[in-house]
Amino acid sequence: MILSDLKDYLKSHEQVSLRDVAVRFDVSEAAAAGMLEHWERKGMLKRIDNPSCANVCGHDCASCPMQCSALYRWTEG
């Protein structure tokens, strides 16, 4: 199942971006965001806003329409 594969991927990397996940699992960024949201809702994944996002698209990560620099970190041991 892809969610368990994603969990393994997240646990093996210090942090990942939305684009990393989309490329790794060969899915759209929208699909990757949905999978990441699953683990966020469970409290096992934390979204980290990257301060460089404003330099890329001019938005903070929370309102970035491209989700260009949002990073994610696994928080469950």
3D architecture notes:
This protein is α+β, with helices and mostly antiparallel strands. The chain has a single domain (2-74), classed as Arc Repressor Mutant, subunit A, CATH 1.10.10. Helices cover 47% and strands 13% of the residues. The chain has four helices and three strands; from the N terminus they run H-E-H-H-E-H-E. It has helices at 2-11, 18-25, 29-41, 53-57, and strands at residues 16-17, 45-48, 71-74. A three-stranded antiparallel sheet has the order 1-3-2. Helix 2 crosses helix 3. The longest helix has 13 residues, at 29-41. The protein is globular, with a radius of gyration of 12 Å. The two termini are 21 Å apart. The mean pLDDT is 81.
Break the fold down into its secondary structure elements and pairings.
Blueprint: H1 2-11, E1 16-17, H2 18-25, H3 29-41, E2 45-48, H4 53-57, E3 71-74
Antiparallel strand pairs: 1-3, 2-3
Helix pairs in contact: 2-3
| Widest beta sheet: strand line-up | 1-3-2
| CATH domain class | Mainly Alpha
CATH-level-2 architecture = Orthogonal Bundle
What's the number of extended β-strand segments?
Answer: 3
- CATH topology term: Arc Repressor Mutant, subunit A
How does the major sheet shape up? 3 strands, antiparallel
Cα shape: globular
Terminal CA distance reads 21 Å
Indicate how many domains the architecture comprises: 1
Unreliable parts: none
Q: Helical residue percent?
A: 40-55%
Let me know the average pLDDT. 81
Derived structural class? alpha+beta
Outline of the structure:
The chain has a single domain, classed as Arc Repressor Mutant, subunit A (Orthogonal Bundle).
